[in-house]
Each structure stands twice: as structure tokens, then as C-alpha cells.
Amino acid sequence: MGKNYIDIENDRGETLRYRKHVNGRGLIAHGAKVHPTAVVETGAYVEPGVKIAADAHIGRGVWVEVGAEIGPGAEIAPHAHIGARAAIGPHAKIGIRAHVGNDATVTTGSLIGDDETIPDGDRVATDRRGLRLAA
């Protein structure tokens, strides 16, 4: 049986250890907290300090940066990027290749479309069709 972790050197020459998540085999950095019922697919990276709640789904190739929080039942589609300290609310859906900036917030149940960008520090609320609401 192969090892359940991998060491990767970052841009500053520091070595970070990532473990393979039991549900999906995505890479979880030491210091991140991922609920056992969450799915983190292969090719996804979850950085230190991230919190992923129950039943969240992190797709292939997603990058979740330091200190981000993913709410229960949230769905992050493949190749999306969640910035540092961003907050994704419960049952929110983030589209393919979408980018949520640093310190941005996507509220409960919101829908962010494919290839959409949420700027750093922005707060976004949408209805179930993705139409913007007053946040």
C-alpha cells in the first residue's frame, strides 16, 4: 500500500506536507481541517488553516488557499480557485474555473457561474439562478 502523504516545496523553499483525503484523494495540508463527510477530489489542494465543513464537495483541480472556509454542503466545481481567507457559505455553488478572491464572501445558497471572478474583499449574494441580490 502506498503512502498517504506527499511533501511539496513552496516558493519560499519551505516543505509542506499534504495528506491524501480519504474521500476523493485530494491533498490536504497539515493544519487544515476537513470534515470526514466532505469530498476532496484528486488534484485538489487544500492549504493550511482551511476549514471544510460536512458534506462539502471540492472538485478536481480546485485550489483552496490559506485560511479559507467552506460551509456545509457547498459545492466547488473543478478548477475553481478559492482565495486566502475567503468564506463560502452553506450550500453555495461555485462554478468551473471560477475565482473567488482573497477575503471575499459568497453567502448561503449563492450560485457563482462558470469562469466568473469575485474580486478580493467582495461580498456576493445571489438567488438560486445566480442573479445578484443586495448583500
Topology:
Elements: E1 5-9, E2 15-20, E3 27-29, E4 33-34, E5 39-40, E6 45-46, E7 51-52, E8 57-58, E9 63-64, E10 69-70, E11 75-76, E12 81-82, E13 87-88, E14 93-94, E15 99-100, E16 105-106, E17 111-112, E18 117-118, E19 123-126, E20 132-133
Parallel strand pairs: 3-6, 4-7, 5-8, 6-9, 7-10, 8-11, 9-12, 10-13, 11-14, 12-15, 13-16, 14-17, 15-18, 16-19
Antiparallel strand pairs: 1-2, 2-3, 19-20
| CATH classification class | Mainly Beta
| CATH homologous superfamily classification | Hexapeptide repeat proteins
Q: Mind telling me which CATH architecture this is?
A: 3 Solenoid
Into which percent range does the helicity of residues fall? under 10%
CATH domain fold name: UDP N-Acetylglucosamine Acyltransferase, domain 1
**How many domains make up the 3D coordinates?**
1
Terminus-to-terminus distance: 49 Å
Protein name: Transferase
Keywords: Transferase
InterPro entries: Trimer_LpxA-like_sf (IPR011004)
GO molecular function: transferase activity
Protein model, in words:
0% of the residues lie in helices and 37% in strands. It has 135 residues and is an all-beta fold. The protein has a single domain (5-133), classed as Hexapeptide repeat proteins (UDP N-Acetylglucosamine Acyltransferase, domain 1). It has an 8-stranded mixed beta sheet, with no helix packed on it. The relative contact order is 0.11. The model has no long low-confidence stretch (mean pLDDT 92). Keywords: Transferase.
